Amino acid sequence: MLPFLRQNLLYSLILVLAVSCKSYKLTDVKPAPTTEKTVENLYFSSAEDYVYKCQMDIYKNHVSGILIIKKLNETTHRVALTSDFGNKLIDFEISDQNFKLNYVLPDLDKKIVINFLKNDFQQLLKRQYPVSESFENENAKIYLSKIDNKSYYLFFNKENNLLKQIIYTKNNKEKIDFTFDAKKHIFADSLHLDHKDFKINIKLFQITENE
User: What are phi and psi of 154, to 5 degrees?
Assistant: First the structure.
């Protein structure tokens, strides 16, 4: 695993500079009235540990490990990633505004790698979204949240009101598609993170279920 991280991950991420993103636009939806001022992603809101099997596909390379996410307070989470053999790879604390690196394996201690992880987890763990507009289609209620030059489209299943997808865009370009599979509002059984400007896919599968 470590030779892959050392030789392939850094160089693969650099290739993003040559990749352009498509503009994102909702299709097959209609405006929907709403009284909601904010909507929330509650999947990481419990004080219990969230433990997932993590699989990453990066430019045709595959790496796996264990990911632990713990809520420290209302704004901050701690995230730790270990190899399948239990070796710690990275440990950091993160909120919307702050990032504290507690440990990183020397092979991973590269600015582009740290920034990639920081951005992904800031988007994944973001909880509150002010509602700018609302829409609907046959299966989902859709809330658009605009924050500076970023936009978030949150899709809630009409049948159970569970969050099933977040599409994150920046400067109207689609960046990351988060897709959730869940049975409860506070815990996602699985998560698929699909980059649109990196050839990177991350999949998380529950190991211990949050009560």
Answer: -110, 125
